[in-house]
Amino acid sequence: MAFHYLARGIIRSDDHVLLVRAIGDAITFLPGGHIEFGEPAKQALERELFEEATIVGKAERFIGAAENEWFEGEERQAEINLLFEVETQLSHHEMVISNEPHLEFFWVPCADIEQWNLYPVALRELIKQNGSSQQAFWGSGISGNPMI
């Protein structure tokens, strides 16, 4: 089993949100990545954004967390995503160029988020609702049934 501890950012421009996917994959996710041991989550998010696409952004309000699980081959994977609003000068009229050849970034209308296969699935409703709630979000893609 592998466990992933991640910081993800919601980057909005008007009614669009920035998504990422591995080239050739159908699954999308929010920008961000792994939190290193002893690293604050906001700092990890800002570092990952810059490393992946030279995005200069400020991790702001903590929105909540989403958990997920899946299999890669025979190995069970689990993740916790800490979610933050990100303040940046990006516009959905601009292309975001990846610094990593296996990733691509793109803007999608928030109203169409269901069509983009965003994971964890629980985030889809959060994106459609514009994340306006002051209550912390908790989403789960874990069924509660043992997978082993």
Automatic annotation (TrEMBL):
Necessary cofactors: Mg(2+)
Keywords, comma-separated and alphabetical: Hydrolase
Keyword set includes Hydrolase: yes
Keyword Hydrolase part of the UniProt annotation: yes
Domain Nudix hydrolase: 1-132
Annotated Gene3D superfamilies: Nucleoside Triphosphate Pyrophosphohydrolase
Domain of life: Bacteria
Pfam families the UniProt entry points to: NUDIX
Protein name, as recorded: NUDIX domain-containing protein
Species: Photobacterium sanctipauli
